[in-house]
Design brief:
CATH architecture: 3-Layer(aba) Sandwich
CATH topology: Aminopeptidase
Structural class: alpha/beta
Strand order of the largest sheet: 1-2-3-4-5-7
Order of helices and strands: EHHEEEHEHHEEEH
Bound molecules: coenzyme A
Largest sheet: 6 strands, mixed
Length: about 160
C-alpha cells in the first residue's frame, strides 16, 4: 500500500471511494466542492495494486488562523480495519506539520482519533456549531492553538451541510 498526493487523474476514483465509505454522496460531493473552491489544502490517496482504496482531505479553516480541518477520511469498506485510515491520518499530519500549519480540528470519535493526539479538551476553548464531545483538536506546533480560544469555523462548504 502506497500513500501519495491526490492528482487530477484520481478525481473519479476518489469520489467513488468517499461515496462507498459513507454509503451516500454527501461527503463525496463535499470533497469536490472543497477542491473546486480552493478550500482544499492537500489531499492524499492510499493506493494498492493500482487501485485507490483510501482518501483524506485537509482544508483551510476560516478561523483560527493557521488551522486545518481534517475531513473527510475514507477507506473502501472491504479494506477498513487494516490500518489504512491510520496511515492516511499519520501521513497527513506529518505533511501539515512540515508545511508549517499550526493546528488541526476534526469532528469524530474520540476513541479513534485520540490515538493520533487529538483531544476534546484542546478544542474546548473554541466555539463550534458541532457537539463538543466529538469536536477535537491537535496542536502541530507549541502554542499553535491560542489558549484564549475564539471561533473554530470550517471552510464554507461544510457550513452549507449544516
Ligand atoms: C473511519 C475510517 C476512515 C477508519 O479507517 P480504517 O482503515 O478502517 O481504520 P484503521 O484500520 O486505521 O483503524 C482501525 C481502528 O479504528 C477503529 N475505528 C474505525 N472506525 C471507527 C469509528 N467510526 N469509531 C470508532 N472507532 C473506529 C476500529 O475499531 C479500530 O480500532 P482498534 O485499532 O482499537 O482495533 C474508515 O473505517 C471509514 O472509511 N469509515 C467510514 C467513513 C467514516 O466514518 N469516516 C470518518 C469520519 S470523517
Amino acid at each position: 500500500m502506497n500513500i501519495r498526493p491526490e492528482t487530477d487523474a484520481d478525481k473519479e476514483a476518489v469520489y467513488d471511494v468517499v461515496r462507498a465509505a459513507f454509503d451516500q454522496v454527501m461527503e463525496a460531493d463535499l470533497v469536490d466542492q472543497l477542491k473546486g473552491n480552493g478550500d482544499s489544502v492537500f489531499s492524499l490517496v492510499a493506493e494498492k495494486e493500482g487501485e485507490i482504496i483510501g482518501h483524506i482531505l485537509f482544508s483551510r479553516m476560516q478561523s483560527p488562523e493557521g488551522a486545518l480541518g481534517l475531513a473527510p477520511v475514507s477507506v473502501l469498506p472491504a479494506h477498513q480495519g487494516s490500518g489504512i485510515g491510520s496511515a492516511l491520518i499519520r501521513e497527513g499530519l506529518k505533511r501539515a506539520t512540515d508545511a508549517g500549519w499550526k493546528a488541526v480540528f476534526l469532528l469524530g470519535e474520540p476513541a479513534y482519533y485520540s490515538r493520533f493526539g487529538f483531544s476534546v479538551d484542546a478544542a474546548l476553548p473554541f466555539e463550534t456549531l458541532y457537539p463538543v464531545q466529538y469536536f477535537m483538536a491537535l496542536e502541530l506546533t507549541t502554542g499553535g492553538l491560542s489558549a484564549g480560544g475564539g471561533a473554530a469555523v470550517y471552510a464554507e462548504p461544510f457550513l452549507e451541510l449544516g
